[in-house]
Design a protein that fits this description.
With 229 residues, the chain is an alpha+beta fold. It is built from 5 helices and 11 strands; from the N terminus they run H-E-E-E-H-E-E-E-H-E-E-E-H-E-H-E. InterPro entries: Acyl_CoA_acyltransferase, GCN5-like_dom, GNAT_dom.
Length: 229
Amino acid sequence: MSEALDRPVWNSLTGLQAGLAIASGAAVRIDPGFGPFAAARDREEDAQTALAALVRAPGDEIWLVEAEEWPAPSGLTVLRTAPLLQMVFEGVPADCPEDGRIELLGESDAAAMYALAHATRPGPWSTTTHRYGPFYGVKRDGRLLAMAGERTRPAKGLAEVSGVCTDPAARGEGLATLLMRRVMADFAARGDRPFLHTYADNAEAIALYETLGYRARREMVVTVLGRAE
């Protein structure tokens, strides 16, 4: 099971979440409405050519989450890279927190979720990213202050916690912890082990995740590719 985490995007989009994928031969990308994630079968020429075909317009970009930086195929260029830390939950699953502030977010919250994600930058967020799976949030006076939910499912028994973010005005209130515990309770109920990715230099987030029972599994790299000029 853990081997599936070495290539989380490829294994998700060719497996349990294939219904969200756009395929081009030996490469896949998620429907752009969900985000920019993509992967190739390997680095062979046919797979790299298929990967390049998934970038269809100027300004379009794809994000590859792999163990190492991914080389740009012909026609594409590396726009940027960033080191990530992949962490896996190794604690004891806790009961679902009972807190009246927690709300299950839905379509009516999509605009607020998009705005919060783009204001806090937990990772890429597009117009329908909230449809990956259940997202929970906390509001105050109708304003969304924090949220957390799920993203990739690279194998049966694994699910990624994602979209964890808090409005700066509500930081220090423990909302990220509260909402992550709610998401993790859902995972536990269906037999999934949580994992997540964070930017490797985000010491504050890493410390929080460690208090929740996550431990570093391996370093990863996100490579962002776009059309070559």
